[in-house]
Amino acid sequence: MLFNSAVFVFAFLPLVFLGYYGLRYLKLHVPAKLYLLAASLFFYGYFSPRYLLILIGSIVINYLVYLVLMRLPVSEGGQGIRRGVMLVAVTLNLASIVYFKYYDFFIENINAVTKASLPLLHVALPLGISFFTFQQISFVIDTYRGRTGRYSWLDYSVFVSFFPQLVAGPIVMHNELIPQLSEEKRFRIRLDYITVGIRYFVIGLAKKVLLADRLSLVVTYGYDNLSALNTPEAVWLILAYTLQIYFDFSGYSDMAIGLGKMLGFDLPKNFDEPYKAKNIQVFWDRWHMTMTRFFTQYLYFPLGGSRKGKVRTCINVMVVFALSGLWHGAGWTFVIWGCLHGVASVFHRIFHRRIDKLPIWLTTLVTFGFVNFAWVFFRAGDLMTALHVFSKLLRGGFGNLALTAEGFPMVNAFCGSNITDLMTHFGVGAVWQQVILLALTIIVMTGMLLLVFVAPSSHRVCGREKTGRFEGLWLAVLMVLCVMTFSSVSEFLYFQF
């Protein structure tokens, strides 16, 4: 089920909350964890019961590897065996991702190069496999390095399957969640945590259903009708997706943190005003922060990091970004997107002293512009589609800007038919409808940009000790507006990754 659905908000979440805290209140701590585990597995199985076996199998295998590593001696003789066990476990985890996510991609490329006709499997991608697999890879490697404690199978299972972060992150480390399962202060209902959790959840839900889903209308229309776009519409299309993916993924991450807070747990934040970044390095310190942390700790550092000279450092950066691009999706456009960010990061490393002397507003604008440019490859289904967008951007012209009854198709897609129907009901003429829709679109898009660049982040809003007099009112209004959209529930963009 989805966070932005009626069944989750009005059925699943209340039952989990009451059952979990009820068992904690009765000091039935092990049953409380079992209840949370069962709820998390039900949450995952609700999407597709058959893939629940993959999640459970992954948990069992990795926990068995953990037990083996914990029992093997750390002596010089046993270290080689431990390393072998760790490498086999990491390979098995990666193999599961490769099979489900990349098998057809590799076969398609082999067929294209060798002119062979190897069959494709067309295997459906299990939801969240990249997230919970990376989470367990980090756990296995940390166990090999001697950085894990003595964890029960129950604590480990809850750590991997905890439903707020299971299908789209954040990628949580074992030492961030497992110790919390046994902390006494988290056994009782804490009104401060619940209050903050509700703030996070409502703000995240509003980002998703009121902003990201509205932007998806213009993005979908634009990519479905590229040939009809002019230059201003191509600019709007690129900007709309930049905002859509931000509000969609940061909204999910806010909801994940909020749900964790409601149940008494602290999850790491995944976003911290990334579009305000003054350079590309700061951007990646703020965008999908737990993924950046994973690739830094478990790929960049093992490759040598920045300890082996400038050339090797640049190569390591490019490898990390190319693989992070491929992690996002089985397609060359994702690899290109990752490599573009790798080149930008290398460029910043080489010229950072000169770049840092430039005005912050200028470097922030350039960084945001580059991010917009790169997102085109991320969104486009293939390279030709991405090039088509850039062609329209450069050679699309300005089209017919005269206001007519037909108006602007992308504006109509953005505003939807409800507003038009309402104006028609009150006798507003067709041309004036287009004037109003265009003005409304400009106001809304400007407001979204202000939210990104001027408004405080959700972390600062939710972390305030003193709240405004009308906070409860505006949260209630936001929640009502969100609930009104539950009839058209949409998935989160990062579910496909």
Structure characterization notes:
The mean pLDDT is 89. Helix 13 runs antiparallel to helix 14. This protein has 497 residues and is an all-alpha fold. It is globular and about 80 Å long. The protein has 19 helices and no strands. Helices cover 70% and strands 0% of the residues.
Keywords:
497 residues
Helical fraction: over 70%
Approximately how much beta-strand content do the residues carry?
under 5%
Order of helices and strands: HHHHHHHHHHHHHHHHHHH
Largest sheet composition: none
| Backbone shape | globular
Question: What Rg, in angstroms, do the CA atoms define?
Answer: 24 Å
Poorly predicted runs of 5 or more residues: none
SS elements, strand count: 0
Provide a count of the helices: 19
Provide mean pLDDT, rounded: 89
In short:
70% of the residues lie in helices and 0% in strands.
What's the helix and strand layout?
Elements: H1 6-25, H2 29-47, H3 49-71, H4 76-114, H5 129-144, H6 153-161, H7 174-177, H8 191-224, H9 231-262, H10 280-286, H11 289-300, H12 310-328, H13 332-355, H14 360-379, H15 383-395, H16 409-425, H17 430-453, H18 458-462, H19 471-483
